[in-house]
Every structure is written in structure tokens, then in C-alpha cells.
Amino acid sequence: xxxxxxxxxxxxxxxxxxxxxxxxxxxxxxxxxxxxxxxxxxxxxxxxxxxxxxxxxxxxxxxxxxxxxxxxxxxxxxxxxxxxxxxxxxxxxxxxxxxxxxxxxxxxxxxxxxxxxxxxxxxxxxxxxxxxxxxxxxxxxxxxxxxxxxxxxxxxxxxxxxxxxxxxxxxxxxxxxxxxxxxxxxxxxxxxxxxxxxxxxxxxxxxxxxxxxxxxxxxxxxxxxxxxxxxxxxxxxxxxxxxxxxxxxxxxxxxxxxxxxxxxxxxxxxxxxxxxxxxxxxxxxxxxxxxxxxxxxxxxxxxxxxxxxxxxxxxxxxxxxxxxxxxxxxxxxxxxxxxxxxxxxxxxxxxxxxxxxxxxxxxxxxxxxxxxxxx
Length: 375
Fold this sequence. Notes:
By secondary structure, the protein is α+β, with helices and mostly antiparallel strands. The protein has ten helices and 18 strands. It has helices spanning 49-55, 95-106, 114-129, 137-148, 154-160, 219-224, 229-233, 254-258, 287-295, 360-369; strands at residues 18-24, 29-35, 38-41, 64-68, 77-79, 86-91, 165-170, 181-184, 191-192, 195-201, 207-215, 217-218, 239-247, 261-267, 273-279, 304-307, 332-337, 341-349. The strands form three sheets. Strands 1, 2, 3, 4, 5, 6, 7, 10, 11, 13 and 16 form an eleven-stranded mixed sheet that branches. It has a five-stranded mixed sheet with strand order 8-18-17-14-15, with no helix packed on it. The radius of gyration is 20 Å and the shape is globular. The two termini are 33 Å apart.
């Protein structure tokens, strides 16, 4: 894990907003609130982030002030800002991502064929899918036209049909935070980051704030079969969230999420640089609709965090022309937007990333030993 570096992670207006997160202390993980530029340990108020959210215990004055967040380094170690929440994700929520998933499917997960498939698909359906409202009469007419042309795909179904793709990205407590290593499988030859905004919701599905996330994806695995989604998405250290959840208040609302402009920077040890951009204004489904679809008839007693999807299409060649992008060990990935800050991680193979060992049982034992669990 990496030392706390406020200037390298915080939102541009960090002194104005209220931020929820977790730090690693000598005793164990603790929830924190950042308010007015001061970090407050909230573990004696509520032992977990999920409990803080359930109780709406966001008054930082009830915690223990640890430091002014003004300098570089020398502070606590930052963890992923969620703990007992389920980690969910919405896929294919942008037209570009829909096309890329169809490309993966048609190329059978072979990146060397992707450019050929891409050129044909974009010419035939790229314009038609942009701007159409999912589930509308126009969307259903487009669906029928594509079926008639033999162009239909399961990915287009979730892109323009009435039901969004909602899946479980990562087990409870498995996500990593700012500065941690992030993993891709060593047997994957075509993969990429997915820079996204993620919304934190309580047990009733009510949104309480938003953060940044990296929904790392193995394109070769999912392209071979959609039934390999769990292997493409859920691997050790394959989900990064942070640096903090910015709580909704007068300085930050769901409209800021809708208007977010998310930047991506990948810097390789080989000198390769890739810059990407994702505008939430181009999402095809409103964040509140995605939250409702994630909730559905289900119940999340500890709440959930929902990745909203990405516009980023990793088509820039890295090595050979036409082969597109894939990660190499040592890549530094930075995801940023002014209101949420910067999420930075270094890519390694999942088998080499720090093992995930603190599960729910271990956390409960730790909190009990610290005297933080009360009736």
C-alpha cells in the first residue's frame, strides 16, 4: 500500500465537500470523514462505512480529528472507501462500449481481428445506436432492423433494450484503493482499465455519494463467451475504488455525477502513454435508473456501490498496428475528475498483487478485539 498523499488524490474543492473513506491504522481498518480539510477517525462512532451510511453519521465533529490535509505524505494509508457493501456494476451503458463488446464477441476474444470487425460494425450500426433511448419504440425498431440484417447481439440487447446489464463485480471487502496495485490475470493477452464513476447507495437503494472506480476487464475472456464474465471481471485486486466517496450535499449532487468528465491516463514503463476521456453526459441510462435496476426486488442490508459504466474504448495501438491496447505490468493508471479527485493504481498480475486475506470473519474479529462492536 502507498502512503497518504493529499495533493495527489483529492478533489479540486476538497475543503468545501464532505468525503467518506477508510484508512489502515495500527489496530486495523477504520472509517473516516474528511470535512473542512480535516481527517476524522469515525471508528468509535460506527465501526464500518456501511454502518456510518446506515446511521447517516456524517457529522465529523463526533469523530477524532487526525490531521490537516495540507501536506505531502507522512499520513495514514488509504484503503478502498467501501467495506461491507456489495460491489455491483452496470455494463454497456454507452454506445461506444456496446460496440466494443460486440467487437469482442465477433472477434472471439482475439485482439488481432478486432480492427477488421470494428470497421465493419461502426459503418453499419455505429450511428444508429447513438442517441437512441433504451427500451423506446425507436430502440425496438432499431433492434428489429438489426435482427433482419443478422447484426443482433446480446450486448446490443442490454445497450438499447429495457433491461440494463447489472452484475456483481467483486466480493465484499475485496476492492483496493488509491495507490494499491491493481491486477490482471497472467494468462490474459487482451485487457484494459475501465474508468468509471461509481455511486454508493444505502440498504434502500438511496444514493448517498459518488466516487471513482476502475472496473478492470479481460477482453479476451469475455469475448470468447459472455459466460466467462466472472473470470473476466472478478480476480484478485481487479477492482479499484477511491480515493474517497464524496457525499451528496449543497456542493455536490447527482447532477454533478451526470455532468462528470472523467479523464484516463495510462503511463507504461516502456514509455507508452495513452489518454482517454469519458463524458457522463453521453450515458444512455440515467444513474438513478441504473440504481433502481440494481436494487430491483433485491435487498442489500449493508448497501451497495454501483459502477455506472464507461465510454472509454481502448482502440489505440500499443505495439503492432491494428492490435489495439492491452496492459503491461508496471502500467500506472490514473482516473480523474475535478469533483472526485484522482484514483491511481499500478498494474501487476493478479497472482503477484497483495493477497486479499481480510474477509468478513476477519474484520468482525478485528472489530471485536478493538471493542468496536456493541449490542
